[in-house]
Amino acid sequence: MNAADIKEKAFVEIKKIESTSQLEEARIRYLGRDGLVNQLFAEIPELPREEDRKKAGIYLNEIKLEIEEALAQRDRQLKKLSAKELEKVPFDITAPGIPMTGGLGSIHPLTQLRQFVLDTFSNLGFEEVSAPHIETDDYNFGLLNVLADHPARDLWDTLYLEDGRLLRTHTSNMQVREMKKRLSAQAGKPPIRVMTFDRCFRYENLDPQHSHTFTQFEILYVDHHVSMANLRFLSDYFLKRFFGEKTKTRFRPKYYPFVEPGVGVDALGPNGWIEIAGAGLVHPQVLRNGGIDPNQYSGLAWGFGPDRMLMAKLGIDDIRSFYEGDLRFLKQF
Amino acid sequence: MLILYSWLKDFVNLKKPAEEIAEALSLSSIGVKEVKKESGEKILNLDVTFNRGDLLSIVGVARELAAIYSLSTDKIDRLEEFTPSNEGDLEPLKIKSEEDLTKIYTLTKISDLAPRSTPDLIKKRLEAAGMRSVNLWADLTNYVMLEYGQPFHAFDFGKVARRDPSLSIEVRKAKKGEAIKTLDGLDHRLSESDIVIADGRGPIAVAGVMGGEDTEVDDGTKEILLEAAIFDPVLIRQTARRLGLRSEASTRFEHFLSSKNLYISLNKIIQLFEHHGSGKLTNFSQTGKKEAQESTPVVLTHEKLSSISGELIPLVRAREYLERLGFKIMSSEKGLLCWAPYFRGDVKLPEDVAEEVLRIHGYERILPKPIQTEILGGEEEKTEVWREPAASILSDGGFNEVKNYPFVSTQALSHLKSEELLRLRNPISPEAEYLRPNLLFSLLENASKNAPREEMGRIFELEKVYPKKGEVVHLGGLSWGEKEPFLHLKGVVEAIARKAHLNLRMIRSKNEYLHPTAAGELKIGEVPLGFLGILHPHLAVAFGLGETAVFEIDFEKFSELAQMWGTLKPVSSFPEVYEEFSFILPQTRELGKLIEQIGSASEIIREVKLVDRFTKDEERSLTIKVIFQSQEKSLSAQDIKPVREKILSLIKKSGGSPRT
Hints:
- The complex is a heterodimer of chains A (333) and B (660).
- Chain A is of the alpha+beta class.
- Chain A is built from 12 helices and 9 strands.
- In chain A, helix 2 (20-31) runs antiparallel to helix 4 (50-81).
- Chain B is α+β, with helices and mostly antiparallel strands.
- In chain B, strands 18-21-22-26-25-24-23 form a 7-stranded mixed beta sheet, with helices on both faces. Chain B has a 5-stranded mixed beta sheet with strand order 4-7-10-11-12.
- In chain B, a hairpin with a 2-residue loop joins strand 24 and strand 25.
- Classes of the chains: A alpha+beta (333), B alpha+beta (660).
- At the A-B interface, helix 6, strand 1, strand 4, strand 5 and helix 9 of A face helix 2, helix 8, helix 11, helix 13 and helix 14 of B.
């Protein structure tokens, strides 16, 4: 091996060294008393000309210095990579991150909840549907067993259009629409498993607790032998996913003209029971209005107000925050 | 409804504290809003629902609690009805009644009254219910109403007789132009759908709602004409609402009332007038009939009950619950034959009976049962499918999602044509009178409110708008305080289109809300989708904004056209070569068209993209990168040369000057 080869071999080898002991071995192999470089030094006297002997000596000394430097450099690198050294690197991880250029946008909390809710129920085979916001009295009330001048209408203060139609007061206007739609479709008959997450409107003055515009989520399930026990299952399935597996829930009797029995659904919060959802088995008259024989099929409906749900979950005290486009609020989502 | 807890103990032997009673009621019957304490007594605030009118009374609530706790109802069962036949020597009064307005109408005259002050217990119970003590006569009618749920009205007989000595009392619809001054001192013009109690001279009371001032009882009243009736609930409700006179009485009239209860409460009130006012019953008359006791039973089968509950509740158990609630039950081969008690007008179907069973059984005993899923076909609505991707791209692009009310504000209204908008018949306020036809003005208001504290902002909304031709979901975005806002906004809209594998075209067109030149129409093929551009400076000024860019598209149309999968171009295995072309192109010339032309200039051009853009002193310097590649061979200099020539000539032809 000539001097140049030794140098190249040494450089390649040194770069691969992983520990100080390997470093020492390499030093001995190349620069030790009987090392490769010294072996070449030993060959110098055999050169015939004085001039060549001189040149070779200088050259070998340079190589020796270069290898020494490479070893020293690798030694410094190895020290830097050592766990001990890494521990010494100063870095403040608590400093705020650097904002993305242009700033990252945000998705409205109701849209985020919507995605969560729809995903949850689509796991159970519910399909998303929508129904008109501008609705007829029939689909919003009459076909849901809330007849004209029925005192139960007091439950819904309604906004009417000049042409006699109204702004739907709940997402339940989808119920008879879906029953009829599916009956006329190829599929022919139940099961029906649908859900909707959308806006509704009522005659309400705006204040922190009231809004004329609000959101509802609702499921409708019609099949053979749909029972209160199934309702309990679906209700718990969602509430435990949203509030936590250990969440306690309960049903209370509650009156809605389009279900029988009707229940209010409570969840136990830190300050006691709070009403979260309304539900029940679809009233036989509503099934009949949708063209479904209540002697063969039964149905359930379950729904909640996403605005109130988010307010409870996030401690928001003003429902208007959702609808007034204040970026100081929205950018937090 | 507010009730004094201790009052319930007159009828049922309650031992538990009020709070526990409240919990039991809310778990088995009706909501309890709160239990409050006033001068050492507990008051329950009940949320009585429409179907349970029977609970608008102390007796009703006591009976319900007896059923829940399985307590004796002896005290309630022993209450006696007033039976006019026993008072055979009573002189009848003349009453005329139009059919259908009342189920039953009774008048009782009590004479020889001696005025006294109302006993403290009665006063206390009225006040707890939120009712003011007026005088003994009025207080007694209110007291019995609270206790039994049957409203009464007391006329001063002397005053009635002075008005019309013939005493021809009539229950009828009001006549056109009739008016009455009610107890509260207000004059009301009556409509022809109102039920009135009238004598020969006109109305003396608005039936079920409020009496007239000139026949009002007072401390000097010696003879009382006491009315107990059951009116048509729908008409009472309409009148009370129209006149703005909803009261404890009218509320009860809107619910189901039973004639048996009317006679029980009549019996009680006569006793009270005799006892506290030393009065004497002298006359009684009635029209209408007592409803039949026995109706057809509702049949509850075991199958129905278990199908509704999802649990096995033995019929014997169901029977016990129902009997506690006052139902008469007979077992038959078909199941239970159930007769609802007289005070329950709401139980008509097997489902209704099943609910009664379940709530006494306890909903907490119904255990969750998974649904039997059957896989359903069907396609998701396209608009719903594309919501999430569009919102994600916008938010990744720095846009914040807003949600706005569906109305046009008064400020926005001045820029819109109100005759083209849908208007509400009963608007809450001028700010919520018209339905918005687009998102633009909602977004402008958001920007206008936020701009003073946010020098730059990007917002979007994905919601319904309500133009006259029909409601539709729109997607709109807006940015303010940004450099080159048009191109930035266009970039984001292009990204959404790309996600849906759609080729978005921008066509020059005028829009009154937008800048005359820096705006245009967005199209997919020939289908117009919406607009994008710089907001018209006049509108920007009106909303206190600087340069603002906006877009708005019909999101339903977009979703209809959108493709989940695009058409793939095969990846060529031959090397690609690229070349850059720098040139100056005035803003008046269309770069978009030029890029399109270059792109289709030759088979070997795979892609054309803008890589640099620089504008100084109105002069627009551009660099495009053209990638050449063939599917068939490696390209040589000879292959590229003619294409390069063609590109340069296209640049020149479109008004560009190439730079070297």
